[in-house]
Amino acid sequence: MVDVRSAASAPKQEIRLEDYEAPAFTIESINLIFRLHDDYAEVEARSLFRMKKGAGSELRLDGGPYMDLLALEIDGSPVPDDQFVKSAEVLQLRSVPEKFELGVVTRLRPRENTRLEGLYFSGGNFCTQCEAEGFRHITYFPDRPDVLTRYHVRIEADTKSCPVLLSNGNPGQKGDLGDGRHFAEWNDPHPKPSYLFALVAGNLACQNDSYTTASGRQVDLNIYVSEQDLDKCDYAMQSLKRSMAWDEEVFGLEYDLDVYNIVAVSDFNMGAMENKGLNIFNTKYVLASPETATDADFDHVEGVIGHEYFHNWTGNRVTCRDWFQLSLKEGLTVFRDQEFSSDMTSRAVKRLDDVRVLRMLQFPEDAGPLAHPVRPEKYIEINNFYTTTVYNKGAEVIRMMHSIIGPEAFRKGMDLYFERHDGQAATCEDFAAAMEDASGADLKQFRLWYSQAGTPKVTARRSHEGRDLIITLEQSCAPSPGQGVKLPYHMPIRLGLVGPNGGEVTADLEGDGKWEDGSCIVNLRETHQSFRFKNVPEGTVPSILRGFSAPVVLDHDLSDDELAFLAVQDSDPFVRWESTQDLYSRYLVKQVSEDGEGHPPELLLQVFTGHLADKATDPALVAELLTLPGEIALGQKMESLAPERIHTARETLAKAFADASSENIIDLYQSLKAAQGYSHEQGAKANRRLRNVLLNYIALMPDGEETTQRRYAEADNMTDCMAALSLISHSNFDCRDKVLQEFYDKWRQNDLVIDKWFAVQAQSKRSDTVSKVRELTQHEAFTFKNPNRLRSLISTFSMLNQVRFHEKNGEGYRFLAEMIVRVDELNPQTAARLVAPLGRWGRVDEPRKGFMKDALMSVLKVSNLSDDVRELVEKSLA
Ligand code: ARG
Ligand code: ZN
Question: What range(s) does the Peptidase M1 alanyl aminopeptidase Ig-like fold domain occupy (predicted)?
């Protein structure tokens, strides 16, 4: 055997979509035996290969540097040393027969695996994470999503420390091996790519339930967690059952195995993983009880449980041909989980939440050096492309198709997609083609959403001719890395016309579009395009981009009075909210740029008090109408970021609202007090949301400290507790340190709650936050090994605390650079996810700009930097 050591340290080469080649073989089946021991694991893999006609006889397998190759056989005989070449990443067999069984035995060290990729040890249990390219760290294999095969798995382990042995598919035989060891076998009848393989072995408690599918299949449902968490799985289980029913009802899709297993692990790089029949979850998205989880946490559990369940069809039954197609499964599955959550909770509020996330995370990505299309064209490290663009913008792309062709044609398109591609590895193109064929619509131009990066800007201008209202839309999209010139997109713009008395006006349209439920969806395809609405009553106000029908930045010519009118009158909740936000933002942006101390105009106060008095609207939506635009959103409306001034302007306006409406705020706050204690029902959740928004204003009033502290002390659930704690953490209240300490002492045994304790301090707007955050990395509860802990402190600080991260002396940037380097030594994937905030130097002035670049440079200087971090830091500097 020839060992090519130089390859181990060579940086990874860029992979390109245009270089895609289909695999040269098929694999009929794989038999895997895992022999798990305390300090190592041995993996025996036997796969039946069949070379395709005309393919050469050479075989290339993917591998990794962290495993030892113990044996390599073809049809039971060892492959001679001169017949293969092994580097750190590739195992190449010179010549293989047309059909053969490949035998590979590898030895792994799961306990040393801090990268949390492949087979690793977490909280006393063995578990795997194979997406995107983790399976190659378990055995040498064609680790690519277009190689599908049937898996048969046998796990052998210590009976006492690993009573639970799980893998994909349906359970097979199990039994005792003597010597204190036992085994279990699993068969997955559905061919799958290696990234969907999973194994779990450990000492876990189980919550069990069952579900009967529409066609009568009995499915055994299990959620595995550590013993002390068994009382926190109920909501996840209910969510799973709701997901199963929803997918049957809405998409006609049923589950296809006898068991559905979910395992919660505390060390996990991402949210969760849809492995066939054996989902592995970050504990954060499984465990929830009113005492330990906020209402938002409950919603996330439901959303992620749904997301992974929905992957069973969109991801598993139909998977991706290559990783450039990632959004085929992720964008589509996010769209599906958003729809599910909308149906389970409030569609209007869910949409606001999703749009807020998109704008806060995806828009900056699309506007910065890491911008890439929903279907990227090249990458160095694929794990760096599990981005908000692929996921959230990807979901918007699906949503737009849904709007353009309508819900019925969309459903037909989904049916056709499954009819054509079930059991296959497909592409984004296949999906678009199915939608096109099912609807008869022409989506040729629409496909640019997959290939062009950047957030388009749409400008809407009005003109009148007689009684006709003409709305002219103009679109443009700024250059992004590697894409200088953009072609015009096809986008669905949902419009409404609100008559002078507040009612919906329906007017004949001249132009490309159609009316549907009081709104008109127009197709914007040109750079510049007009839509004429005939015979519109005077005083009618257009409501543009209802439901945020396209992921764009809209610039319109509505006056303050018109915005105030829509804020109250529009039937579309998104536009009501957006108009309110626009009104607040306009004023705040002016305050920042003019450094004015002017009292807010009467109109703003009127709108605010109008919302306060609104009894007809869902309190959860009222809560959003009463919330000022966040500092990040405000920053996006400015040429160059002025973090302190944004912060001050926003605080000042909040104080003005609090002063001007103190009585109404307090009255409403009192009236929302839950009569009968805690409930998780929608109405109760909505009331909490509103009440906690009001508390923000109350905290600014003369006895704010007292009220906030009382709210904290009396809270009988984590939602209220965190609302108060967050205010206390921002404040200079005398009680601050004492309350934070008490909270820590009370919850020190609960990791997920302690994550909140770190996060609430990382988000503090106090001027000492950078040094406090740095201090917290020395805290006994802090660890560089746990991704949740890292994110709760470091990502919360750098991504959500704009004013403190952008501290003028550059301390925030230097801190982040140091953290990236520290984390990279243990966990490159998670380290790489910390890089993005440093790439936003184009948005700030000197000296910040220089400090940010220096921080990036300091990371680049480190030797042995991972490919993951290097790729993003280099791009961030470009
Ligand atoms: N497919 C998973 C999801 O449901 C994400 C897993 C990605 N993991 C990774 N290490 N890249 O979205
Ligand atoms: Zn997913």
Answer: 454-556
